[in-house]
User: What shape does this take?
Amino acid sequence: MNQLAVPYSNLSQLVPMTFEVFFRWVAWLLTLAILAFTLSPIEHRPVTSAPADLERFAAFVVTGAAFWLAYPKQRFGIMLLVTGGGALLETAQALVPGRHGRLEDGLIKALGTLLGAAIALLIEREIKRRRKIR
Assistant: This one.
C-alpha cells in the first residue's frame, strides 16, 4: 500500500498560534481590507456615520498596533513600511476613477499608525510590569 505520510494532523501543529503569529494574521488581514477599500471605487467603500477622517485614522491605529505586536524584532522597519504603505495608497488613489489621494489623508494615516504603535507599546509595558509584580 502506497500512502502519503502527513506529518501534521492540523494547521495548528504546522503553524503554532503564538502571540506574534496571531497579530501577523490580524495585521495582514487588516492591510488587505484597507487596500481593497482604498483602491475600490468610492461607491464600494463602507460608510459609517463617523467622519471619513476618523474612519481612516481608526483603521490605521488598529493596523499600526497589530503590526507593532506582530513583529517585535523589526518594529522600526515595519512602522516605516506601514507608514510608507499609507502614503503609497494615497498616491495610488489617483489611478482609481472618482478617488483622489490627499496629503492630509496620508498624514492622518501616518499619525494613526504611530498612535497605534504607541498604544501597543504602552500595553506591552503594562503587561510586563504586572508580570514582575506577581
The CA atoms of residues 85 and 106 lie 10 Å apart. The mean pLDDT is 86.
